[in-house]
Amino acid sequence: MAGKKDQFMPIVNALRLPLKQKEMDIEKNWLQDPKKLMKKIMCVWIPANGTLLDMMVRQLPSPLEAQHYRVTNLYSGPLDTLEAAAVAKCDASGPMSVYVAKMVPFGQRRYAFGRVFSGTIKESENVRILGPDYEHNTKRDLYVKKVGSIGWIGARGYTYKPESIHDCPAGNLCTILDLDNFMLHSGTLTDSDEFYPFRNTSYSTARAAVVQVAIDSKSPADLPRLVQGLKRLSQLEPSARVYVDTSGQHWIYT
């Protein structure tokens, strides 16, 4: 790309792109990072962010409309309950429920990224964490913990940094801290003892294992470190799955 500078610069000048003053130093920026400069030029020339946002606003139904007919596919419990009705109506005053779609690494921390389907999740609130193996009216894969700060992700250039908010009502996306130790990929948060978990979304690559490997620690003393490492791998790589069979053997499949 560096050798094609003389071909690109006349085009940039002819388009009269509204570049900032520091970006106008073409010679300096080109020598430092030509790919970054070209990416910026293309973003200014053909901005996709506004187009995509406008398309989503115009074409995608609002949560108030969509949840009414999607509740049968989203909610795994009976539909004639107060909890199901709150999800269908996107009721911010009903029982709180959040579906966490993924765990997002950001610096040294890890955020749970999810959508509030009913009620309002609040900072430092005690919630029931329903994992993918949770069974109703049992304690399997169930945790009751206090969530950390609630955040809203806003774009700042090419980075996305959660901005702290006190609460988040139904129909919105948010980030949640302090769920790292209780949730690997996805799950359900709620404040109701009668709430059933949301149905988990799944990656097509994870439906059938292509490679399956048994993992052991060299020393029994290293087993906790192995478990922690496998847990971190599962968080960072969505296509990787870790499980323990009935004999206690750890497996990775992807």
TrEMBL record:
MF-aspect GO terms: GTPase activity; translation elongation factor activity
Under the heading InterPro entries, the entry gives: EFG_III/V (IPR035647), Transl_B-barrel_sf (IPR009000)
Q: Which CDD domains match?
A: EF2_II
What are the annotated GO cellular component locations? cytosol; ribonucleoprotein complex
Superkingdom of origin organism: Eukaryota
Q: What is this protein called?
A: GTP binding / GTPase
Q: What is the lineage of its organism?
A: Eukaryota, Sar, Rhizaria, Retaria, Foraminifera
